[in-house]
Amino acid sequence: MTRKLNFKFNPEDGVLAIAEGGLLVGQESNGPYLPGRYMIGGYYDTSDYTSFVDPDDIIEGNWGLYFIANQMVYEEQEDQGLNVWGVFTLAPRQSINSFPYGVSGGAYYKGLFDSRDNDITAGAFYLGIYSEDLPGQTFELVFELNHRFQFNQWFYTTVDGQYVVNPNGQTNISDAWVVGLEMSVDF
Fold it and tell me: Domains in the chain and their CATH numbers?
């Protein structure tokens, strides 16, 4: 059996271009500002897409933008404290994008409990607005709460709970609870 690597470049099949820029604030250890990161980015794809409404309608090209912010707002001590974050996504071509608009945000606290300085407690929400061209789908909203137990440098466990409103954007599907457990070992 012969295996070949394929590094073929076919621009006629579509080209994806991505750009991102960012700003870091408060990165110096004794500076006047708390650490933060702000990023804006976007993409353009020259590929062909099939319309949700008419499978015979081929749409050329797609684009989207996003904005991400993460800012520490309270510092208990170095590398510990409260951070807030937010994300906004835009992919406005409703005929080919399932989620043309999305908004997410939340907060996390490292070292919330006295004897657990490296643990991280987090809460968040995720809102996705479905395309107007997808009948019966409106929005999906997820609320999440989790806690990461950092036992040492190489092992942690995260306990996670989510509540999903309008799963798959459909009001005829009951809201759902989701519970998860993650374990990680670094070698």
Answer: 13-185 (2.40.160.180)
